[in-house]
Amino acid sequence: PAMDYAALAAAAAENMELYRRDSGGWRDCRRTSEVSVSWRPSAEFAGHAYRGEGTVPASPRDVWECIKPVAGGLRTKWDQNVKDFEVVEAVSDTVSVCRTTTPSAFMRIISPREFVDVVLIKQYEDGTMLSAATNVEHPLCPPQPNFVRGFNYPCGCFCIPLPGEPDRTQLLSFFQTDLGGYLPQTVVESFFPANIAGFYSNLTKAVKALKA
């Protein structure tokens, strides 16, 4: 049976809203000047869910411009973990099925990965933007021979305007990714917090470059 992409995307967004409201049980695992990263066991798979929270020195519009999940977007330019991003099927104005490939990482211990997700974009009345995603299968995306297929469980980023601070944006992000393959748990648990810190650091540089 065909997957109901719109329903899966809506469920991922709902999941993100629950995560945003539910601040209990997160344990700090990394802190930089740009982000505090915490984790708790995922309810979706045998790994961890990670939460990143930081303030980016740019308007919500500029931050969104850098992270929005669109073909030909800026993300492949600044995010060292996104090698390629393609829209496989536009389901509606706000929902699309996308394939992301990542380069090898962690001193090549982690080989290149590919992820196929349904992605939803949502705007809230207060100006907050959400991009939420979860793994799906798609007939146009069979597993590729040179990549390990990884799976994103409900994940996403909230770009939240800060009242009275038009040039600052709160970025709240949730990641829960099964990298697939046969990676030791210790590798995975050191990779993600460092990776999320790098995401915030590179995003901060990207928004500065965008404004320059």
UniProtKB/TrEMBL annotation:
Residue ranges of every copy of the START domain listed in the record: 1-212
Keywords: Lipid transport, Lipid-binding, Transport
Presence of keyword Zinc-finger: no
SMART domains per UniProt: START (SM00234)
Any GO MF annotation of the entry: cholesterol transfer activity
A Pfam cross-reference name: START
Residues passing through the membrane, by range: none
Top-level taxon: Eukaryota
Listed GO biological process terms: cholesterol import
Transport as UniProt keyword: yes
Job description of the protein: May be involved in the intracellular transport of sterols or other lipids. May bind cholesterol or other sterols.
Protein name: STAR5 protein
Species of provenance: Chionis minor (Black-faced sheathbill)
